[in-house]
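Task card 7
Instruction: Convert sequence to structure tokens.
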Amino acid sequence: MNEDAFTRATRARYNRIAVVYDLMEAFIERTAFAAWRQRLWAGVPAGRVLEVGVGTGKNLPYYPAGAQVTAIDLSERMLERTRRRATDLGVRVDLRLMDAQRLAFPAGAFDAAVATFVFCSVPDPVQGLRELGRVVRPGGDIWLLEHMRVDRPVIGPLMDLLNPLVVRMVGANINRRTVENVRRAGLILVSVEHLQGELVRLIHARPETSFIAVI
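Output:
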């Protein structure tokens, strides 16, 4: 199965679950995710902002005032739900159907890029992160809110064991090492904040050309 096949499978999964996606995450969204989203977006300045993996538009209420936001997603049905939510909230956003692994934007097109719980699903996460580094201008910001593998003797191997089943059901990998992937993509880590132990982290990175010291 080549990369294109993985990408098609990912799109199909999210098209399939789009209608129930918000219901699936309703409890954890209310109890944790919403506060973490707000925390992330508080650090994003107004400017040209790219949101990768907009999904059903859960981040729309937190967009910075005055920001020019372009938001992409791989799933047509997810984007349909985002369009309805944007209309209901009166939020202006340029929505586009696009693959995070192949962003159709020139280098340095954005001041910042944001992704929340996305790089658990991108078939080639390192390539997707490289694309963020390409389209964000030197000195710009990349913000990621991600769940990832807990590197502990019992929990980590259990997450590895369960991962194929979880991917088949909901499309998300539960054993990604996203901090390592950020480094592998050539991005510079500015900070990593643990929000729920090792499981959920808020990552602030920059393109390599910004010459920020590695942490």
